[in-house]
What does this fold into?
Amino acid sequence: MTWLEFLGYLTGLGFVSTDLDMPTLIRTAVIVNICNAIMCRVIARNNNMNPVGWPIAGFFFGFWAIGAALLVAAKRDQSA
It folds into this structure.
């Protein structure tokens, strides 16, 4: 696995298009991951979770962090 493939699948963009060149992938990943960080912040704030850690995770791990935040929020709702 190359760095380009790894970055593509980490950000989720590899599932959309596998033939992106590195500059395009990086620019798009930064923009998309900023949006993911904002979404993680909203999820964390609405569910009384860490409002700093989740946006950082959202920026670095993309939609994977959003999925994790939603799962943690759902589990917290069930246990409450």
Notes: The radius of gyration is 14 Å. Residues 3-79 form one domain.
